C-alpha cells in the first residue's frame, strides 16, 4: 500500500532518465536558440502558409532569388537572370554548384516539378494560385530555367523568394510520398537541413554540408523553439535559454525597453492593422457618411502612443509606406488635427441619421488577444466620447471570427490585418478587388477594379505606379475599412549575435547570423 | 472478482461510444473550419483542400468514415500538424503527459498523506494549523497564477531551474511543472488524510491497540494507515481527472508538448481528428484507471464487491 | 464558520455597494492614468488597469460576475443531482443500480475537455456555459444525496410517518428533504469554489466573459503578465479570488462538521 506512490515515482523517474540524455550539443558546435512563436503547420512548402513555417523553410530551402539582411533582392539558387524587353520572359541561370543535402545537383527541372505540384489540385496547396501570372515554366537545360508571363509582373522576383516557389526533389517525393517533410527525409537545398522535430516544441536544424555557400554559414545548429505564449518566450530570453525572440509582449513592453533597450529591434513591417466594415449589410452598406465618421473619430496617434506603444505608425492609407516603387496616397483628413476630425465626424454621424436619442447600435468583433482587446476597448471609448454611442464588443476565437468574416452574415465591424506576400503595392490593393477571396469587407468598385486591371497591363513601371496610386485614392475615399496602424516587427536579440539586419520584410535568415566570441 | 471486473469492462463500451458521438458532434458544431485563416483561400483552392480531407462530405458520412477508420485503429491525419497523423502526435505527447502526471500524483500522495497524518497526530497544534493553512492556500490559487510566479522566482530571479521546456536538458525541467500540478492535489489529499486519520485514531480498535502499549509509529503503520487511506483511495478517480485538467494549463504555461497542449491547440484550431483522438484516448484511460481503482478498493474492502 | 461566513458577507456587500460609493465607473478609460498604483487621492482605491480604468470598481464587478456564474452552475448541478439522487435512493433496487451505474460511467468523461468543447461550440453565451457546466457537474451531488436518502428511508421516523398514513410525496417533502438540507448545503458550498476555478481557467484560455464586463478570473488572467510591473493588477483580484475560494471551502468544512456532529448526537 504505502509503496504505491514510491513505485509510481520510480517508474516516472526512470522515464525521465531515459529521455533526458542527448539534448546537449557537443562543445565544438555552435548553437543558436531562436523563438519561433506558434508551431509551423507543415514543412511541406506547398501545405503551409504561416509566417513561422516560412521562416524555417527559408533556412532549409532556397529559391531562385533571395534577400540580403537589409531586405534587398539578391541571387539565390540562380546565379544570374535576363528579362526580355516586353518583360514577359525571364531566363534564369542556376548556380552549377547548387546542391541538395544528399549531394544531388539542383536542376531547372526541380523548379518546374515544384511549380507543377503547387498548381496540381491534388496537392491541395494553400498557395495554388501563387504563380497565377506565370504561363509556363520550362527547363531549357539542367541549369537554365525559362519563365513566361501572361502579363508584365514587376514583382516576379519577389514572388520567387517565397518558399512556395522553392524547388522540390522529385526523387525524394516519389520515395516518401506526402510524408516527405520530416526529419531524415526532407531534402534541403538551403543552408540548413532539418534534423529533428518534436511537434509542439522544438525544431532542430543543422548545417547542410552540401550547400553551395556552406563556407559562409557560421552557426552549426539552429534550434527553433515553439513558444506560443509571448510572456514565456520573454522569460526564456531573460534567463538565456533563447538568443532571439519572435515577439515582445505589448503589456510589459515598457519594462522590457528599460531593461533591454539595446537588445530591442523595432522595425516597420509591411502589415496593416485594420477594422473592416461589412459592406453587404446595414448600416454600412450605403452610408459613406457613417463609414467616414467612425474612421475619423479614431485618434490613431493616441492609440499608437498609449495602447500599442511599440513604435507603430498610425495608418492613413491601405498600403504601408516603404513598399517598392510606390507612394501611398493618404486619407483626405490625414492633415487635420484630431479636434477638427472629431467635429467633422460628429457632423457626418448626424447626416447619417444618428444622434443622442437615436444612437448607432453596433457590434465590433475581434479575436482573442491582449493587444486586440486593448485596442477595441480604446476605440470603444473614443467612439463613445466623440459620437456618443456604445459599441458592443464581441471577442471571438480566431476560427470563429474568420468564419463570420467570410460569411458576412453577422459581422458589422471586425478586426483584421493584412501583410503582403511580396514587396509590391498590388499585394495590398489586390485584396480589395471585388472578386478576391480575401476581400473581407465585400468592397466592390468598378472604378477601382478597372484601375488595377489597367495597372496590371503596364510594362512601364512608373505608369503602372500611377494607376495603382489612383486606385488606392479611389478606394480610400470609399472607406471600405478603417486602416488603424502599421505593424512593427519586434525582436530581442542577444548582443553577441552578429549579422542581424532590421528589414521591412522581417526575414532573418539564420545563415546570415554568427556568434561573436565572448569578450 | 473476475466477473466483477468483466462486468465493469462491458459497462464501459456504451460510455465510450457516447463520448465519441458527443465529441464528434461538438467539434463539428463549432463555427469555423480547420483551414480558415486571415489569408483566405480562393474558393477552388478551398474546395480542393476540403475534398482532400473529406470535410466537404455530410456529417453522417464523415462520422462513418471516422468510425470505420477507428475500427481499423486509424485515427486519421491531423489537420493542423499536417505532416503528422493523430496517432503519431498522441505517441509523441503521451509519454510526457504520463510522466508529468504520474510524478505529480506520486508527489501529491507522498506529501499529502504525510502532511495529513502529521497534522492529524498533532491535532490543533501550531504544526497542524500551518499544514492546513498551506493546504487551503494550495486549493485557492489557480494554477495559471502559481506557474508564472514560480517561474519568475525560481528561474528568472534565482536561476536555479530552467524557465522553459524545449531544448533544456535533464530532469530539472520537470520540477516546476510537476510541483505546480501537484500543489492543489497535495492540499486535497492532506485534508482528506487528516480528516479520516482523526476518525480512525478515535475509533475503538485503535484505542484498544494503544492501551496495549503499541508505539505511535507502529500504530500508524500497522493499524491506522490502511483504513484511513480508504477515502484517499476513492479520491484517486477525481484526482486523476483533476491532474488531467491541471495538465492542460501546466502544459500550456510551460510549453510542454503533451496531450493537454495538443488538445487545447486542436480545439482552438478545429483540428477535428486530433481533438477526437485525444478525447477518445483519455476517456479510455480514465475508464481503465477507474476500473483499477475500483478493483483495488474491492481488494481492500470486500464489502464493495457485494454492493 | 463565523469568520469565513463574515468575510464572504463583507466581500459581497462591498461588491454590491462599493461601485456606488466610488467616483469611478467600470468602463471609463483614461489614457493618461494607465497603471496608476493604488492611492486615495484620486479615488483609485485599487489603482488602475492597462486602460486606466478603475480597478476597485472592476474588481467588485468581477466578484459579482464570478459569484453569479458559480452560483448558477452550482444550482443547476444541485437541482439535477438532488432529483436524480433522491429518486434513485427512494425507488432503490434494480432502478437504483442502473441509475448509479450510469453515474459511474459519466465519471469517465474527460470533464474539462467537454467544457472546452462546449465553450467552443456554444461560443459567446456565457451564462449558458455555466448551465452546461452545472449540468455536467452534478455527479457528486447525485451520489451523496442517494446515499443519504437510502439511509433516511430506513430510519424510524420515516416508518412512523408511513404507519401514520403519509403518502410518498409527503414523506419526501416533509421528512426526507429537510434532512437532506444539511448535506446539500455542505456540497453546495464546496461546488461553488470548483465552479469559480473552472471560470477562471476558461478566462485564462480566452474563452471567458466579454469586455468591458469582467470576472475575477478574467482580471487575474490579464494581470498575470504584470507580476513584475503593475503587480497590483494581479495581486488584488488574485487575493479576492483566493479569499472567496478559502471562505467557501472553510464554510463547507465547518458546515460539514456541524451536520456531522448533529447527526452523531
Shape of chain A: globular
Oligomer: heterotrimer
Structural class of chain A: alpha+beta
Main β-sheet, spatial strand arrangement of chain A: 12-16-11-15-13-14
Into how many domains do the coordinates of chain C divide?
Answer: 1
Distance between the termini of chain A: 58 Å
CATH superfamily of the largest domain in chain A: Periplasmic binding protein-like II
Mean pLDDT of chain A: 91
The total of helices of chain A stands at: 15
Describe the sheet with the most strands of chain C.
Answer: none
Which descriptors would you attach to this protein?
heterotrimer; A: 519 residues; alpha+beta; D-Maltodextrin-Binding Protein, domain 2; Dipeptide-binding Protein, domain 3; six-stranded mixed β-sheet; four-stranded mixed β-sheet; 15 helices; B: mainly alpha; 11 helices; 0% strand
Describe the structure.
The complex is a heterotrimer of chains A (519), B (307) and C (265). Chain A folds into two domains: 31-244 and 493-515, 3-Layer(aba) Sandwich (D-Maltodextrin-Binding Protein, domain 2), CATH 3.40.190.10; 268-489, Roll (Dipeptide-binding Protein, domain 3), CATH 3.10.105. Helices cover 31% and strands 21% of the residues of chain A. Chain A contains 15 helices and 18 strands. In chain A, β13 (363-367), α11 (370-387) and β14 (392-396) form a beta-alpha-beta unit. In chain A, α14 runs antiparallel to α15. The N and C termini of chain A lie far apart (58 Å). Residues 17-25 of chain A have low confidence and may be disordered. In chain B, 75% of the residues lie in helices and 0% in strands. The radius of gyration of chain B is 24 Å and the shape is globular. Chain B has eleven helices and no strands. Chain B is mostly helical and 307 residues long. Chain B has a domain at 99-258: Orthogonal Bundle (MetI-like fold). Chain C has 265 residues and is mostly helical. Chain C is built from ten helices and no strands. The model of chain C has no long low-confidence stretch (mean pLDDT 82). At the A-B interface, α1, β10, α6, α12 and β15 of A face α2, α4, α6, α9 and α10 of B.
Amino acid at each position: 500500500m504505502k509503496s504505491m506512490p514510491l513505485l509510481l515515482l520510480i517508474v516516472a523517474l526512470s522515464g525521465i532518465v531515459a529521455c533526458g540524455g542527448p539534448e546537449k550539443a557537443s562543445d565544438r558546435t555552435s548553437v543558436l536558440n531562436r523563438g519561433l512563436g506558434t508551431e509551423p503547420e507543415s514543412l511541406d512548402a506547398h501545405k503551409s502558409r504561416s509566417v513561422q513555417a516560412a521562416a524555417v523553410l527559408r533556412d532549409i530551402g532556397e529559391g531562385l532569388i533571395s534577400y540580403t539582411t537589409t531586405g534587398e533582392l539578391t541571387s539565390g539558387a540562380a546565379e544570374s537572370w535576363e528579362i526580355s524587353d516586353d518583360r514577359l520572359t525571364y531566363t534564369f541561370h542556376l548556380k552549377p554548384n547548387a546542391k541538395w543535402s544528399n549531394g544531388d545537383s539542383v536542376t531547372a527541372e526541380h523548379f518546374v516539378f515544384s511549380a507543377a505540384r503547387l498548381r496540381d489540385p491534388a496537392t491541395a496547396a494553400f498557395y495554388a494560385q501563387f504563380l497565377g501570372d506565370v504561363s509556363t515554366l520550362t527547363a531549357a537545360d539542367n541549369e537554365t530555367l525559362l519563365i513566361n508571363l501572361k502579363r508584365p509582373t514587376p514583382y516576379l522576383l519577389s514572388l520567387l523568394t517565397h518558399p512556395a516557389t522553392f524547388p522540390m526533389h522529385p526523387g525524394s517525393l516519389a520515395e516518401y510520398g506526402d510524408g516527405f517533410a520530416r526529419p531524415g527525409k526532407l531534402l534541403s537545398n538551403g543552408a540548413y537541413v532539418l534534423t529533428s522535430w518534436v511537434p509542439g516544441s522544438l525544431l532542430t536544424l543543422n548545417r547542410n554540408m552540401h550547400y553551395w555557400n556552406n563556407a559562409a554559414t557560421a552557426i552549426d545548429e539552429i534550434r527553433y523553439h515553439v513558444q506560443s505564449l509571448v510572456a514565456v518566450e520573454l522569460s526564456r530570453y531573460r534567463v538565456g535559454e533563447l538568443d532571439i525572440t519572435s515577439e515582445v509582449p505589448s503589456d510589459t513592453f515598457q519594462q522590457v525597453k528599460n531593461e533591454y533597450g539595446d537588445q530591442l529591434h523595432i522595425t516597420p513591417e509591411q502589415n496593416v492593422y485594420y477594422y473592416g466594415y461589412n459592406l453587404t449589410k446595414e448600416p454600412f452598406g450605403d452610408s459613406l457618411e457613417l463609414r467616414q465618421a467612425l474612421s475619423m473619430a479614431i485618434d490613431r496617434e493616441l492609440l499608437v502612443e498609449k495602447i500599442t506603444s511599440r513604435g507603430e505608425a498610425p495608418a492613413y492609407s491601405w498600403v504601408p509606406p516603404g513598399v517598392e516603387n510606390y507612394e501611398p496616397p493618404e486619407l483626405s483628413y490625414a492633415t487635420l488635427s484630431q479636434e477638427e476630425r472629431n467635429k467633422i465626424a460628429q457632423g457626418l454621424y448626424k447626416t447619417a441619421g444618428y444622434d443622442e436619442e437615436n444612437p448607432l447600435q453596433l457590434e465590433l468583433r475581434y479575436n482573442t488577444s491582449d493587444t486586440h482587446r486593448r485596442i477595441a476597448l480604446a476605440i470603444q471609448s473614443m467612439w463613445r466620447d466623440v459620437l456618443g454611442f456604445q459599441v458592443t464588443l464581441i471577442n471571438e476565437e480566431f476560427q470563429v471570427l474568420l468564419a463570420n468574416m467570410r460569411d458576412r452574415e453577422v459581422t458589422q465591424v471586425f478586426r483584421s490585418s493584412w501583410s503582403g506576400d511580396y514587396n509590391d503595392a498590388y499585394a495590398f490593393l489586390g485584396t480589395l478587388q471585388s472578386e478576391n477571396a480575401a476581400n473581407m469587407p465585400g468592397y466592390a468598385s468598378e472604378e477601382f477594379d478597372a484601375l488595377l486591371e489597367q495597372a496590371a497591363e503596364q510594362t512601364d513601371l512608373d505608369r503602372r505606379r500611377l494607376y495603382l496610386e489612383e486606385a488606392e485614392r479611389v478606394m480610400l475615399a470609399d472607406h471600405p475599412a478603417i486602416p488603424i496602424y502599421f505593424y512593427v516587427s519586434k525582436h530581442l536579440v542577444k548582443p553577441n549575435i552578429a549579422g542581424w539586419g532590421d528589414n521591412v520584410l522581417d526575414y532573418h535568415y539564420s545563415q546570415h547570423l554568427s556568434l561573436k566570441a565572448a569578450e | 472478482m473476475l466477473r466483477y471486473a468483466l462486468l465493469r469492462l462491458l459497462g464501459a463500451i456504451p460510455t465510450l461510444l457516447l463520448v465519441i458521438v458527443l465529441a464528434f458532434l461538438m467539434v463539428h458544431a463549432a463555427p469555423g473550419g480547420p483551414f480558415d485563416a486571415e489569408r483566405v483561400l480562393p474558393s477552388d483552392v478551398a474546395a480542393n483542400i476540403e475534398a482532400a480531407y473529406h470535410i466537404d462530405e455530410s456529417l453522417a458520412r464523415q462520422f462513418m468514415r471516422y468510425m470505420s477508420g477507428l475500427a481499423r485503429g486509424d485515427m486519421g491525419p491531423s489537420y493542423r500538424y499536417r505532416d503528422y497523423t493523430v496517432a503519431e502526435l498522441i505517441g509523441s505527447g503521451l509519454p510526457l503527459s504520463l510522466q508529468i502526471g504520474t510524478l505529480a500524483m506520486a508527489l501529491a500522495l507522498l506529501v499529502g498523506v504525510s502532511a495529513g497524518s502529521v497534522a492529524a497526530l498533532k491535532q490543533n497544534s501550531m504544526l497542524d494549523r500551518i499544514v492546513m493553512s498551506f493546504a487551503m492556500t494550495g486549493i485557492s490559487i489557480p494554477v495559471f497564477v502559481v506557474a508564472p510566479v514560480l517561474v519568475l522566482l525560481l528561474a528568472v530571479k534565482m536561476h536555479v531551474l530552467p524557465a522553459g521546456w524545449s531544448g533544456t536538458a535533464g530532469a530539472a525541467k520537470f520540477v516546476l511543472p510537476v510541483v505546480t500540478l501537484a500543489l492543489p492535489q497535495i492540499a486535497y489529499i492532506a485534508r482528506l488524510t487528516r480528516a479520516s486519520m482523526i476518525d480512525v485514531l478515535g475509533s475503538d480498535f485503535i484505542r484498544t491497540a494503544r492501551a496495549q502499549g503499541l508505539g505511535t509509529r507502529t500504530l500508524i503503520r500497522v493499524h491506522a494507515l490502511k483504513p484511513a487511506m480508504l477515502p484517499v483511495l476513492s479520491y484517486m478517480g477525481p484526482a486523476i481527472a483533476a491532474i488531467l485538467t491541471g495538465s492542460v494549463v501546466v502544459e500550456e504555461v510551460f510549453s510542454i508538448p503533451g496531450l493537454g497542449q495538443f488538445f487545447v491547440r486542436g480545439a482552438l484550431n478545429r483540428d477535428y481528428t486530433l481533438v477526437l483522438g485525444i478525447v477518445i484516448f483519455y476517456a479510455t484511460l480514465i475508464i481503465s484507471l477507474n476500473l483499477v481503482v475500483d478493483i483495488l478498493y474491492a481488494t481492500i474492502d470486500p464489502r464493495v464487491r457485494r454492493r | 464558520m463565523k469568520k469565513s461566513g463574515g468575510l464572504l458577507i463583507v466581500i459581497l456587500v462591498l461588491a454590491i455597494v462599493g461601485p456606488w460609493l466610488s467616483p469611478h465607473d467600470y468602463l471609463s478609460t483614461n489614457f493618461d492614468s494607465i497603471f496608476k498604483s493604488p492611492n486615495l487621492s484620486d479615488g483609485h482605491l485599487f489603482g488602475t488597469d492597462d486602460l486606466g480604468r478603475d480597478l476597485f470598481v472592476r474588481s467588485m464587478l468581477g466578484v459579482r460576475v464570478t459569484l453569479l456564474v458559480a452560483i448558477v452552475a452550482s444550482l443547476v448541478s444541485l437541482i439535477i443531482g438532488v432529483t436524480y439522487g433522491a429518486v434513485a435512493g427512494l425507488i432503490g433496487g434494480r432502478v437504483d443500480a442502473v441509475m448509479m451505474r450510469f453515474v459511474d460511467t459519466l465519471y469517465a468523461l474527460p470533464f474539462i475537455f467537454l467544457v472546452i468543447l462546449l465553450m467552443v461550440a456554444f461560443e459567446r453565451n456565457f451564462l449558458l456555459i455555466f448551465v452546461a457546466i452545472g449540468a455536467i457537474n452534478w455527479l457528486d451531488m447525485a451520489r451523496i444525496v442517494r446515499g443519504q436518502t437510502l439511509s433516511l428511508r430506513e430510519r424510524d421516523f420515516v416508518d412512523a410517518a408511513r404507519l401514520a398514513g403519509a403518502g410518498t410525496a409527503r414523506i419526501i417533502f416533509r421528512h426526507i428533504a429537510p434532512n437532506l438540507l444539511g448535506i446539500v448545503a455542505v456540497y453546495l458550498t464546496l461546488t461553488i469554489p470548483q465552479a469559480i476555478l473552472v471560470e477562471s481557467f476558461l478566462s485564462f484560455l480566452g474563452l471567458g466573459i466579454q469586455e468591458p464586463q469582467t470576472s475575477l478570473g478574467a482580471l487575474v488572467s490579464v494581470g498575470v503578465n504584470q507580476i513584475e510591473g503593475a503587480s497590483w493588477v494581479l495581486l488584488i483580484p488574485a487575493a479576492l479570488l483566493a479569499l472567496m475560494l478559502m471562505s467557501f471551502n472553510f464554510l463547507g468544512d465547518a458546515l460539514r462538521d456541524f451536520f456531522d456532529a448533529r447527526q452523531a448526537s
